[in-house]
């Protein structure tokens, strides 16, 4: 039998043996051990918290070595997973694209070339790279100049045809459109920082020298693509209330509010409308700096001819390396680019539908029952995603056998580790508990939706796969309940325990992001 099909059969057989009732103990011929009884009582007590009254909770825990289900409450219930969806996207990307996969951005020319004169067009061709910085476009422009190009008589053509022109994900809400975590997806884009927030520009407002004057507005990277409508004011004293909002369908960012003389600048990350034009603007400015003049206009969305001559090239970091900022910071843009890249590589179509089809086929091979779930995007921003916790656990158990697993496991956020690119979205959670530097898991947040799915090593050294997905609660946050479950699992032991019920573990308070947002989506980062 094919390895994947065997894994799937084993996973389905294991899950079929679990009970769907709340807090059901594993169905075995023997009575549950005292340790199992206490673990169930502990998790049941956590899920009885008043914050979950009227909500939906799905929790599954499996011993990855034996396949034994240690806990199952509503494991087969379809729930909105938020960014736990990235578990499917990231594992499929590593398998289907390969951990060594790179994105290429290159420059070509057409027409005759004599000395430093190109009698044709210059093509900037995007390969989907979400890590392209202004500095990388500058390096490309330097290569063009070093190749001897001085004047291009034709146009600068921005080729984003590797992917389709659908920029926003299926079902995304309209009021997210201008914010960092819902950036438009293009095969040609710019990231303003080394978090690689592609398709965004950082807007800064610094107070003027005297009250009454408007703040000074700058952008990272500097560009001529985004326009600022500065309606803000510098005041003598008072709280900073600066806000930034991009007008729909435009690249006009409206700045309002106030900032006091002497205060630190206020900044925010704003998505751009049409990232292809943004990239072309940054590259054109870089060409000018390096003494290359393009006499024609900028043209968007035209494919590079097959016979165009190569001039310059930039290759991204490997996919294995990209997993770190992608998963640690729960970067939605990376998830959506990878979805389209999977579609392009597997079927020749850089679309959400092609990518999602390929992801579905891969996760089905690992053991997930794709007939019980729906995936609508790569990141989990869509509320039409529905995935049962038991299916997450099936995937988590299966991928431990993959050759790329070590890289992927290390890229998951690690509880309580203060290093930003180690702890990621869990860096402020579960500190000073048995779960700290132990739990490797993907977080998830939307309004009324929270999830935590991943791995924990218990007190006996067993690796447990778990998924906690909570929906339809009205509290501002239920992250503390997820943390309590993870701490209970990290403390779980079959040695020297009584059957007495114990109080749920205490989860240390952690900084909270605004309701419905991953902490890494709040800029500057809130975790």
From TrEMBL:
Positions in coiled-coil regions: none
Signal peptide annotation: 1-29
Alphabetical keyword list: Carboxypeptidase, Hydrolase, Protease, Signal
Gene3D superfamilies per the UniProt record, alphabetical: D-Ala-D-Ala carboxypeptidase C, peptidase S13 (3.50.80.20), DD-peptidase/beta-lactamase superfamily (3.40.710.10)
Alphabetized InterPro entries for the sequence: Beta-lactam/transpept-like, Peptidase_S13
GO molecular function, one term: serine-type carboxypeptidase activity
GO BP terms: peptidoglycan metabolic process; proteolysis
Family, per entry: Belongs to the peptidase S13 family.
UniProt name for this protein: D-alanyl-D-alanine carboxypeptidase/D-alanyl-D-alanine-endopeptidase (Penicillin-binding protein 4)
Organism name: Micromonospora palomenae
């Amino acid at each position: 039998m094919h390895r994947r099909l065997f894994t799937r059969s084993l996973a389905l057989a294991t899950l079929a043996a679990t009970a769907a009732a709340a807090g059901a103990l594993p169905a075995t011929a023997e009575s549950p051990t005292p340790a199992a009884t206490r673990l169930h009582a502990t998790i049941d007590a956590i899920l009885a918290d008043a914050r979950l009254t009227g909500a939906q909770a799905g929790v599954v825990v499996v011993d990855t070595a034996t396949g034994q289900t240690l806990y199952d409450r509503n494991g087969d219930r379809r729930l909105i997973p938020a960014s736990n969806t990235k578990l499917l996207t990231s594992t499929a990307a590593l398998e289907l694209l390969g951990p060594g996969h790179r994105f290429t951005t290159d420059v070509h020319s057409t027409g005759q070339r004599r000395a430093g004169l190109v009698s044709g067009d210059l093509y900037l061709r995007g390969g989907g790279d979400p890590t392209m910085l202004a500095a990388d476009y500058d390096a490309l422009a330097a290569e063009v100049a070093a190749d001897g190009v001085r004047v291009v008589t034709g146009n600068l053509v921005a080729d984003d045809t590797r992917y389709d022109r659908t920029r926003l994900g299926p079902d995304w809400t309209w009021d997210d459109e201008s914010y960092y975590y819902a950036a438009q997806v293009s095969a040609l884009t710019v990231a303003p920082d080394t978090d690689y927030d592609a398709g965004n520009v950082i807007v800064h407002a610094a107070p003027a020298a005297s009250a009454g004057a408007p703040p000074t507005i700058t952008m990272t990277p500097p560009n001529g693509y985004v326009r600022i409508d500065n309606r803000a004011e510098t005041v003598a004293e008072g709280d900073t209330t600066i806000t930034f909002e991009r007008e729909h369908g435009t690249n006009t960012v409206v700045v309002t509010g106030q900032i006091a003389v002497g205060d630190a600048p206020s900044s925010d990350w704003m998505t751009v409308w049409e990232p292809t034009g943004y990239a072309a603007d940054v590259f054109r400015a870089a060409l000018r700096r390096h003494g290359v003049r393009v006499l024609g206009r900028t043209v968007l969305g035209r494919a590079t001819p097959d016979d165009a001559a190569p001039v310059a090239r930039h290759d991204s970091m490997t996919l294995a390396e990209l997993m770190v900022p992608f998963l640690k910071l729960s970067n939605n843009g990376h998830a959506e680019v990878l979805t389209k890249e999977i579609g392009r590589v597997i079927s020749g179509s850089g679309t959400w539908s092609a990518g999602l089809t390929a992801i579905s086929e891969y996760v089905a091979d690992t053991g997930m029952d794709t007939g019980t779930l729906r995936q609508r995007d790569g990141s989990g921003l869509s509320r039409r995603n529905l995935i049962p916790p038991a299916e997450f656990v099936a995937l988590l158990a299966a991928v431990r056998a993959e050759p790329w697993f070590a890289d992927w496991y290390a890229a998951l956020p690690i509880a309580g580790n203060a290093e930003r690119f180690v702890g990621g979205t869990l860096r402020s959670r579960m500190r000073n508990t048995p779960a700290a530097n132990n739990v490797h898991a993907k977080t998830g947040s939307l309004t009324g939706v929270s999830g935590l799915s991943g791995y924990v090593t218990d007190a006996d050294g067993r690796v447990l796969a778990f998924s906690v997905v909570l929906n339809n609660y009205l509290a501002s946050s239920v992250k503390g309940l997820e943390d309590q479950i993870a701490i209970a699992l990290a403390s779980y032991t079959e040695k020297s325990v009584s059957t007495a019920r114990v109080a749920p573990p205490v989860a240390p308070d952690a900084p909270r992001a605004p309701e419905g947002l991953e902490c890494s989506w709040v800029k500057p980062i809130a975790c």
